[in-house]
Amino acid sequence: MKKFYSDHHIPTVTMLWLIVVFLIATPFFTPNQIWGEMFIPIIIVALCALLILWILLDTKYAIKNSFLHYTSGPIRGKIDIYKINAIVHQKKWFVHSSLKPALGSKGLVIKYGKFDDIYISPKRKQEFIDALLEINPHIEIE
After folding, report:
1. What is the DSSP letter of 138?
2. What residue ranges in 92-137 does DSSP mark as E strands?
3. I need a surface site. Which of 35, 45, 81, 89 has the fewest CB within 10 A?
């Protein structure tokens, strides 16, 4: 199994960390706190912070046998590498993909099946592409 970790777009990751800090600190700075009334909002805020932390700390990709496994917090799945048609280097700000388990801004759009695609951003892009091409040499690189 080959593992690849997600690249990080510094402004986005910094913003997400600031949101986590804000969410965790907010209950401690609310005026006239009555902890009995604040219990449910604190739980909701803590769950939101944990979700963002989970995404920040657990975004990665793995190639195991003939499948590409992707993980980004609760977003998980696998793609049959033999069904991958093309890989497109994405350098624009806006990505035309509905599934984006990535933290980087310059990643890869993987087109597979008939109409499916996914945006990912491995740190070592060329090594990642080479690992996919070892399994399926018919993948077009755009």
Report:
1. T
2. 108-112, 116-120
3. 35
The pLDDT score that the predictor gives to residue 105 is 84
Rounded to 10 deg, the angle between the 35-57 and 10-25 helix axes is 160
Query: CA 77, CA 54: separation in Å to the nearest integer?
Result: 16
Degrees (nearest 5) of the Cα angle 122, 101, 53? 100
Q: Please state the pTM of the whole predicted model.
A: 0.84
What is the fold, at CATH topology level, of the domain defined by 1-142? PH-domain like (2.30.29)
Dist CA 103 CA 95 (whole Å): 13
Strand order in the sheet with 84-89: 116-120, 108-112, 84-89, 140-141
The residue ranges of every structural domain in the chain are 1-142
State the Cα–Cα distance between residues 142 and 116, nearest whole angstrom.
16
**CA proximity to 6, closest of 92, 118, 111, 94:** 118
SS3 24: helix
**Confidence class for position 27, pLDDT limits 50, 70, 90:** confident
